[in-house]
Amino acid sequence: MRFILVTAISLFLLSILAGCKKNDDTIVTPGNPTSTTTVTPGTSTTTISGTVSSITSFLSATTTVSSKSGLAQIVTLSEAFKATLTSTQLAAVQLSFSKTDAQKWSNLPAGDVPRVGINTGSLTSSQLAAFQNLMSSLLALNVTDEGYDEMLGDLVADDYLGTINKPTTFGAGYYYIAFLGTPSTTGLWEIHFTGHHYTQPFVFNAGQLIGVTPAFRGVEPMAAVTANNRSYQPVEQERQVFAALLTGLSSSEQATAKLAATFSDLILGPGQDGKFPATKVGLSVGSLSTDKQKLVLNALKLYTNDLEPSLAAIVLAKYTSELANTYVAYSGTTAVNTRNDYIRIDGPSVWIEFSYQGGALIPSSPHPHSVWRDHMGDYGGN
Question: Quick check: 284 pLDDT over 90?
Fold first, then answer.
């Protein structure tokens, strides 16, 4: 068995839980950062400097995570996380599989839309370490602003929102994990991780991955957020790949892809399950040259490749096989850098939307939302 050392990635989740206090096994709770935070409205850089000093002991530690992949390992790490919980916590986190609970995700913070499970801010240090191990087995590692790193970037940005909105339910401590169904290599079950600007489910049945959608990504501020000598900009690479796709089209192809309507948000965001348009609109990917089809595939990969590689390969293979019957549509500008810019990829299975909105808490900052759905596979097809 090969082992990898997760340092900057897995440990950073510990360091961004504002207001942490650590003893041998103390609860890590969200609170007020003790450091200086500076923001320059309307510029490309937002800086959070010097995270909470009380978590220095976390930064000196290391976490060893097995690089072994596969469902058996995911089950093992799920049960290892559950084994760290109290009976009260376990009752909250281990639920029966139900679509009703799986649908409890939102682009709003948990204070506005309650989630199921237990929140990361209620976990002790050992429980949080076990949670890190589990998420590290599900998401791609060691890729800047992708996979596990993208999740951390969303939590970092949410911590910043918590410093400017009081009282708050913004922050890394207000994200929730639940098991819907009992982890196993045979039955139907889901790992359900969700919070304000990040939702990622993993649904398994009969020993197979059967669903990773609806998955939601958002961020505010859009500009880079710096903490612990590290900058995060978790959704910028999606904006760039969509801009590369649209600007790579000819003027006639852009005209075919362009929608007449203006979109100020996603049309299939939370609470909009199953409402896929009956007719596909825009530009057929099958009509494009091989090089331009590759631009579409590059955009798809930024979503599928957030997953651990063996899981990502399953999903990407399906979407690649359906690429010729997939459509691209957009509204606004091809640069995808202006309020109400919008792009959609709609295939036989895949559905991805990216909406570039104005700021909610920071009016001068862009505030993108993106949703990844699957026509047949949302909630594992259940």
Answer: yes
Q: Tens of pLDDT along 81-117?
A: 999 999 999 999 999 999 999 999 999 999 899 999 9
Residue with tokens 């060691």: 142
Higher pLDDT, 47 or 7: 47
Q: Give me the pLDDT at residue 7, please.
A: 37
Domain coordinates in residue numbering, the chain: 3-232, 236-381
Q: Please name which of 348, 306, 311 lies closest in space to residue 327, comparing C-alpha atoms.
A: 348
User: Which residues, at least 6 apart from 369, have a Cβ–Cβ distance to it below 8 Å?
Assistant: 107, 216, 217, 218, 265, 266, 269, 353, 354, 355, 357
For residue 335, the one-letter residue type is A
Q: Are residues 156 and 225 in contact, defined by beta-carbon separation less than 8 angstroms?
A: yes
Residue at 255: amino acid letter: A
pTM: 0.87
- What would the mean pLDDT of 22-43 be, rounded to a whole number? 39
To 10 degrees, the CA torsion angle through 214, 103, 307, 221? 80
CA distance 34 to 50: 9
Stronger pLDDT, 106 or 160, i.e. the higher one:
106
DSSP letter at 98?
A: -
Torsion of CA 302, 45, 194, 345, to 10 degrees: -30
Strand-pairing partners, residue 233, are none
Residue 346 DSSP code: E
Q: With 0-12 CB in 10 A as exposed, 13-18 as middle and 19+ as buried, what is 377?
A: buried
Note the pLDDT tens digit of each residue in 187-227: 999 999 999 999 999 999 999 999 999 999 999 999 998 87
Q: Which residue type is seen at 355? A: S
Number of continuous H segments (helices) and E segments (strands) in the chain: 11, 18
Beta strands, E only, the chain: 3-6, 37-39, 45-48, 63-66, 94-95, 118-119, 176-180, 189-194, 198-205, 208-211, 215-218, 224-227, 230-232, 283-284, 327-331, 341-346, 350-357, 367-374
Q: Which two tokens stand for residue 150?
A: 């993208």
CA distance 224 to 14: 20
In terms of phi and psi (left: phi > 0; alpha: psi -120 to 50; beta: otherwise), the region of 130 is: alpha
Q: Where is pLDDT greater, at 12 or 237? A: 237
